[in-house]
Amino acid sequence: MFEIGEYIVYGNTGVCKVAEKTKMAAPGAKTDKLYYTLEPVYDKGCRLFTPVDNQKVKMRPVLTKKEADELIGKIKEYSAYASEAFGYSPRKRRFDGGGGRPRLQKEQRADL
């Protein structure tokens, strides 16, 4: 559960500040439900209301500087893995098969 004043990433909306946690009557529900009131950082004056237990829209904490630096440091590692796993050739700047699938060589196609 996020705390009031904490910054989170909310789905495609981006970074939001948790302004409040409040109980509200949910449509069709017999009991009140706990909601976050979110204020998008890049859309001043806008407020979003989402259930605390929302499973449809991804909510996560904002990365710290240290976490972001570690992730940036791993980009080469991930890039090398993707190149190997999906047949990407940086020299040719293309994938060797549509959709990441390996392309059959001419000799292999002749056998089909």
Q: Over all CA atoms, what is the radius of gyration?
A: 23 Å
Count of structural domains: 2
**Main sheet characteristics:** 5 strands, antiparallel
- For the termini, the CA-CA separation is 57 Å
Overall morphology:
elongated
Number of helices: 3
Number of extended strands:
7
Which bin fits the share of residues in helices? 10-25%
Q: Strand content of the residues, in percent?
A: 25-35%
How is this structure best described in words?
- This protein is α+β, with helices and mostly antiparallel strands.
- The chain has two domains: 55 residues; 34 residues, no CATH class.
- The protein contains three helices and seven strands.
- The strands form two sheets. The protein has a five-stranded antiparallel sheet, with no helix packed on it.
- It is elongated.
